[in-house]
Amino acid sequence: MERPLLPLRSALVFLMAVISGMTAGCLCWIAGEGVARGVLAGLAVVGLSVPFFDRLIAREAAGDPCGEVDEHG
Description:
Layout: H1 8-33, H2 35-61
Helix pairs in contact: 1-2
Transmembrane segments: 12-32, 38-57
Keywords: Membrane, Transmembrane, Transmembrane helix
């Protein structure tokens, strides 16, 4: 059996970042800023979304939805 190219968690982080970037770029374009500014806004959102979603999924994967440290362990 072959291994996947990307782990499921990484693929999910990149997918969510791309969807966020496309949404931001489309909203910027619809607002009348033009295609070039929409593309730049979308790329900026993708760049900022990757670390955000990476930390968000890592926190929930650890079993602690609030990100707080338990006193007992």
